[in-house]
Specification:
Elements: H1 2-8, H2 12-25, H3 29-74
Length: about 80
Amino acid sequence: MGKKDAGATKLPVDQYRKQIGKQDYKKTKSVLKSTRLKAEAKKNSSIFRDAFLVIAAILLFVLCVYAFFYLNLSTEINLDVDTD
């Protein structure tokens, strides 16, 4: 008799989740499909954005190294020139 009474009481969280699930079924198929497509598009765009950021960071690093060497080598004084 104790098991039947224990199963009848539910946590408020479980009741809330069940209520949300019921509301999700009330949506039409077209709304559910558009929501799923938006989520997939967002997921795919984040991959491209991450790849773009990595490439941009590498290019910025190479540009900084190039600028460092260019500035150091272009301001070097020529000591081989004789001033007579």
